[in-house]
Amino acid sequence: MKSTLKKLLPFAVVGVLSGATTVGALQFLDHHSNTEDQSYFTKSANASFAGMNTSAVGDDFVKAAKTTVPAVVTIKNYQSRSTSRASEQDLFDFFFGDPFGGNGRGQQRQRQQQQVPDNMPSGMGSGVIISPDGYIISNNHVVAGANKLEVVLSNKKSYIATLVGTDPNTDISLLKIEEKGLPYLNFANSDNIEVGQWVLAVGNPLGLNSTVTAGIISAKGRGIGILGSQGKAANPIESFIQTDAAINPGNSGGALVNTNGDLIGINSAIQSTTGYYQGYGFAVPSNLARKIIEDIKKFGIVQRGFLGVTSLDLSDEMQVAAYNKQKKANIKAGSGVYVTGFGESSGAEDAGLKTGDIITKVDNYPITDFSDLSVSIGSKRPGDKVMVTYMRNGKEYTTTVTLKDQKGGTSTRTKADLSVTEKIGAEFDILSDRFKTDYGLNSGVIAKNVMEGGEMAKIGIVDNYIIVEINGKPVNSQKDVEKILDRYQGNVQVKFVDEYGRIYTKGFRMP
Fold first, then answer.
1. Is 32 an annotated catalytic residue?
2. What tens digit of pLDDT does each residue of 345-382 get?
3. What is the model's pTM?
């Protein structure tokens, strides 16, 4: 008997140690409400500690999965084959679902050249139901370029969705289906999450519906440069939650939840050498995502506050070295954001900041790099006041800055307040007479700064395409475009020329 116990004792010890190392993490849920701007969407109630043994952690995962799976949907993106382009379609091909299977960009481009049937989606991603009456949050890149969006629930019911709005700067979009009594997820306060906390990723990767994976939060406030370098984001905000929960193509737009089943992030990207999961997934924090969709729902557009500074990220040694070389300066790398200049009507300059100041805090939130600054300011609206702490000549100062929009305004705007070019999502340059003569054109303007998700982008226009006519009238300047469409309501007809000289006539309804 004693010899038997001696043999079993090592296994018992291993069992105890294994159980002890599998622990639940403290879950933080949002219990702070914004009294100035009441949320349409529900936030979660207070949470409790997860179980401190293997069986309790398992139960928590089951509970979270049962809560989350019914609220996560598949989104199918249908695009016009005549206007879809390989460069647009593979923009996020590492992060975007591929309904036809296969590995990598080469096969995807080959399939595009084979003219996929019009009744097949160009791509598939995920979305999260956030209200019982059918509002769904997803990624901008999941819905980009679509002329039809189909939403499929976990119970296989299918709906055609309306795109309410989208924001390339955060890669967030808001959709709506006409239904009531739907299962939905509560928003947790993503500011309270901790590295090491258990999370679940729920989505539809690689064509596999309702897939749940588990992991931990690996890091917070990650800036990976994807929105600015690969997307159409003019002023990207990147402060991703990093997780090792398995995320693959098709997970984009899906839910990252805590063990209570509350939404802490929207899965957006992976970092991979193969295009498939290698341990690094990234999600937009729920607080930022929630602010974006509430702006879209309430105002029709995103309300974005700006500090009004140009800056240098001191945490990026290569960036600092390049700046020093270019400017013949001797700035030291470290923590914080160095002010290199100011925009027009800068709120920061009005508040007393100067070139050479180092921003270290916003509202007492530490600013260690540009990612911290972009999310702390980008999650505010024009007219909001923030406390900025900065270093000048070795001394610390604090001032209050009133944030402004890009035009210097301090009030919120609606779609009705937008200019024509803002409404249609493009600006236009004059086309030279020599060019018109060489190509036999009597009129034309060059499209520039075409906005992802804008009306011009939706009909296949990209930068450097030539717009010849709008509503049958020739255009030769941006003023011509604005004159034709100012206060115009109804269908807009656009005649344009692509880079190969092919002429198209497409249309959209004036927003």
1. no
2. 899 999 999 999 999 999 999 999 999 999 999 889 99
3. 0.74
